[in-house]
């Protein structure tokens, strides 16, 4: 049963909710970069902000100081923003959820977003993520997809999720939507682990290409194709000065070629071992930095 519509909410047409969180879910800032691109391109309107006081440990996810007119300084507190865009050339509208991964009270946090989605009449939730992987930067960015139910997997041509192990807020939130009866799927881009520093426009572009096919809405990628080409050329140049690194990339290419299946280009399930290993590496890096 849908939650009652709180006053002041917009009336949206067959809305899809697109969600991305910074942190271990977001290698190369690729997932959040994709949502930021869409929100800017489609001129999203702010809907609400989920106050970070209840959900963030400010010693781990720290506030930042920003200059205002070069004179005063302002504290920017971690929070999760919700915005929406009406698309005149499409039969559906879009809701965006964007913010750092919460540190605290994930169940309460998820309940708030589920209630909002139900009040807005959201028909589909797409969780975007990116993980570090043994993939060469010279090849198309692999994008894996999974769904929590067989019906959603069949509808969107994805694999039913079989992953077991550690998860982030994306996994918790996806499960909360499924339990509430809101179809939810995930798309993950694989970012080369040896070039983890953001931004990664090639991975952003790959996520948007897959997303376009899933939600059946045309996406203007603007300058991303050119930026992705410039990014790859810069990495190629860097690799040309390092024989060991160039040899390693060739090894990754050979491994990927050997593992290629007949279903090239199809969305496959997120590799659970890779995801768990990346989660553990992220925790170690965060603990070492404290």
End-to-end separation: 44 Å
- What is the string of helix and strand elements? EHEEEEEHEEHEHEHHHH
Class from helix and strand fractions: alpha/beta
Shape designation: globular
Give the percentage of residues in beta strands. Answer: 15-25%
Biggest sheet features: 8 strands, mixed
Low-confidence stretches: 262-273
Helices and strands in order, then pairings?
Blueprint: E1 16-22, H1 30-41, E2 45-50, E3 64-68, E4 72-76, E5 80-85, E6 94-100, H2 106-120, E7 124-133, E8 143-147, H3 150-156, E9 159-160, H4 169-179, E10 184-192, H5 201-215, H6 224-240, H7 243-259, H8 272-289
Parallel strand pairs: 1-6, 1-7, 7-10, 8-9
Antiparallel strand pairs: 2-5, 3-4, 5-6, 8-10
Helix pairs in contact: 1-5, 2-4, 5-6
Question: What features would you describe in this structure?
Answer:
With 290 residues, the protein is of the alpha/beta class. It contains 8 helices and 10 strands. It has helices at residues 30-41, 106-120, 150-156, 169-179, 201-215, 224-240, 243-259, 272-289, and strands at 16-22, 45-50, 64-68, 72-76, 80-85, 94-100, 124-133, 143-147, 159-160, 184-192. The strands form 2 sheets. The chain has an 8-stranded mixed beta sheet with strand order 2-5-6-1-7-10-8-9, with helices on both faces. Helix 1 (30-41) packs across helix 5, helix 2 crosses helix 4 (169-179) and helix 5 (201-215) packs antiparallel against helix 6 (224-240). The longest helix is centred in the C-terminal third of the chain and has 18 residues, at 272-289. The protein starts with 15 loop residues before the first strand and ends with a helix. It comes from Gordonia liuliyuniae. It holds the Pfam family PAC2. This is PAC2 family protein.
């Amino acid at each position: 049963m849908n939650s009652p519509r709180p006053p002041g909410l917009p009336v949206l047409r067959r809305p899809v909710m697109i969600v991305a969180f910074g942190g271990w879910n977001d290698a190369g800032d690729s997932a959040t970069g994709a949502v930021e691109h869409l929100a800017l391109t489609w001129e999203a309107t702010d809907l609400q902000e989920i106050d970070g006081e209840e959900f963030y440990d400010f010693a781990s996810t720290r506030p930042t100081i920003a200059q205002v007119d070069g004179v005063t300084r302002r504290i920017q507190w971690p929070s999760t923003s919700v915005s929406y865009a009406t698309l005149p050339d499409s039969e559906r509208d879009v809701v965006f959820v964007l913010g750092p991964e919460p540190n605290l009270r994930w169940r309460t946090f998820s309940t708030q977003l589920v209630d909002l989605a139900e009040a807005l009449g959201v028909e589909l939730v797409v969780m975007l993520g990116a993980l570090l992987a043994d993939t060469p930067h010279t090849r198309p960015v692999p994008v894996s997809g999974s769904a929590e139910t067989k019906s959603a997997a069949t509808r969107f041509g994805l694999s039913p999720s079989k992953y077991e192990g550690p998860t982030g807020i994306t996994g918790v939130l996806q499960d909360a939507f499924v339990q509430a009866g809101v179809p939810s799927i995930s798309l993950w881009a694989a970012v080369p682990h040896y070039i983890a520093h953001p931004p990664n426009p090639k991975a952003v572009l790959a996520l948007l290409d897959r997303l376009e096919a899933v939600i059946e809405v045309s996406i203007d990628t603007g300058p991303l194709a050119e930026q992705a080409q410039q990014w790859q050329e810069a990495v190629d140049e860097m690799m040309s000065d390092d024989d060991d690194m160039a040899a390693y990339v060739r090894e990754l290419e050979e491994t990927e070629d050997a593992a290629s299946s007949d279903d090239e280009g199809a969305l496959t399930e997120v590799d659970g071992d890779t995801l768990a290993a990346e989660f553990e590496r992220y925790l170690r890096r965060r603990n070492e930095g404290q």
